[in-house]
Specification:
- With 409 residues, this protein is of the alpha/beta class.
- It has helices at 2-33, 65-75, 92-104, 126-135, 154-162, 188-205, 226-231, 244-254, 275-295, 298-324, 328-353, 361-380, and strands spanning 52-57, 82-88, 112-117, 142-146, 150-151, 174-182, 221-225, 258-268, 383-386, 389-395, 398-401.
- The strands form 2 sheets. An 8-stranded mixed β-sheet has the order 3-2-1-4-7-6-8-5, sandwiched between helices.
């Protein structure tokens, strides 16, 4: 009997390294199968992105906002892109950040269209509300949606635009999206968030390329041809969807289009002062992830549960098995799991973006152990704080504002 228990405990300890290796091999396969994109040698650098309209919904709160906007102006506007900075009429801090970014580079101010927007109606996604109002002002062939804390390299935008099919006669609706990578930022919460994203991005976003379809996009940075966007109705039919990235992805897939997940990075930096802010951010992301799962048919739900849910729980299962019946083979299995998690994922990140943050084994382990707890939190608490709003979420297209005086868990 004790021998059987020892085998079961060892099998549980092996679960983490086996599933981790399986996920990383899938990511490597997807990366190697991805077509490489090279910018045209004859491109005029000053007008390289003259066909791109970059929409950036802006909300204050991040101390580095003006620096991030300045980076977008320098990298994208300096190469001909038209930037649309969308601010709320009651957000004076955002307006100040915009003015500061324009003062730093006055020669590029003509590349920016600043628009001020009223509060969005009840039950409407505040980000989509501004994007919808700005879309009518776009004149370029490509529309880029970019978060206000993002820094997008020119090479990444080149890869996104080349993936849209404009040059090869592919007229289907296509969304091209970049791989999110976080830069170091201030605050314990920011460090935990950066470690989660940088450890998880490649193994989460790349493997679905090997299957029938990629189910959603990274809403921090994505691009689409303007004519294809208008063909699916633009943003207007999705105004009452809380997760804008999922809504746009579903619209493209329903139209027979595809999602082109690229490995090129979009760099982000978000200051989160403490662990409470980190928990709030993760709670929102995990709730959005659950909305994605619930929108899928049952066969896809099962694939997601096995491909994402089980590996997420594997570190806990292995640690608990080892704690109940510690053995030397179990210790080796746990060490292999941690080594693969830390070293293997860092190697993936370096292969994708050409650089990787320093290894932080204890932080990586902590973030991995916290992830199932964030998922459990999202399962039992459907209230989130987002863009100065508080919502109770019933479904992606059904949510309600919570009284500002109420408490949000």
């Amino acid at each position: 009997m004790s021998g059987d228990l020892a085998l079961i405990a060892l099998a549980a300890c092996l679960l983490w390294p086996v599933l981790e290796l399986w996920r990383q091999l899938a990511a490597w396969r997807a990366l190697r199968a991805m077509p490489r994109s090279t910018p045209p040698a004859h491109a005029d650098d000053a007008q390289r992105f003259a066909h791109v309209d970059a929409l950036q919904p802006i909300r204050s709160g991040d101390p580095s906002l003006s620096e991030a906007l300045g980076a977008s102006l320098r990298t994208l506007g300096g190469r001909g892109a038209r930037l649309h900075w969308l601010i709320d009429e009651d957000d004076t801090a955002a307006a100040s950040a915009v003015r500061a970014a324009l003062r730093m580079q006055p020669a590029l101010a003509a590349q920016v269209a600043v628009s001020v927007h009223p509060p969005c109606p009840q039950g409407v996604n505040p980000k989509l509300f501004k994007l919808d109002r700005a879309l009518a002002q776009c004149r370029g062939d490509v529309v880029l949606v970019l978060d206000d804390d993002a820094r997008l390299p020119a090479a990444t935008l080149e890869a996104l635009t080349m993936a849209l099919g404009a040059e090869d006669g592919d007229n289907r609706a296509v969304i091209a999206t970049a791989l999110p990578i976080y830069l170091p930022a201030r605050g314990a919460g920011a460090r935990l968030l950066a470690r989660f994203v940088n450890d998880s991005a490649a193994v989460t976003y790349l493997p679905p390329r090997l299957g029938d379809r990629t189910p959603t996009i990274n809403g921090m940075c994505w691009a689409m041809r303007r004519d294809a966007m208008h063909a699916i109705g633009g943003f207007a039919p999705r105004l009452r969807h809380l997760t804008d990235d999922l809504a746009m992805a579903r619209a493209v897939l329903a139209a027979g289009g595809r999602i082109e997940q690229r490995s090129e990075p979009v760099w982000l930096r978000t200051d989160l002062p403490d662990v409470v802010a980190y928990v709030r951010q993760m709670h929102r992301w995990m709730l959005f992830a659950l909305l994605l799962v619930r929108s899928e048919p049952w066969p896809s739900r099962l694939r997601i549960a096995f491909g994402q849910g089980l590996p997420t729980c594997a570190p806990w299962l292995s640690l608990l098995a080892f704690a109940l019946l510690p053995t030397w083979p179990g210790a080796v299995a746990l060490s292999a799991g941690l080594l693969l998690h830390v070293v293997g994922r860092r190697a993936l990140q370096r292969a994708c973006v050409g650089a990787a943050a320093a290894m932080q084994p204890l932080t990586s382990l902590l973030v991995a152990l916290l992830l199932p707890l964030h998922l459990a939190h999202a399962l039992v608490d459907r209230r989130i704080r987002w863009r100065a709003h508080r919502y109770r979420v019933h479904a992606n297209d059904r949510f309600e504002d919570i009284d500002p005086g109420g408490k949000l868990g």
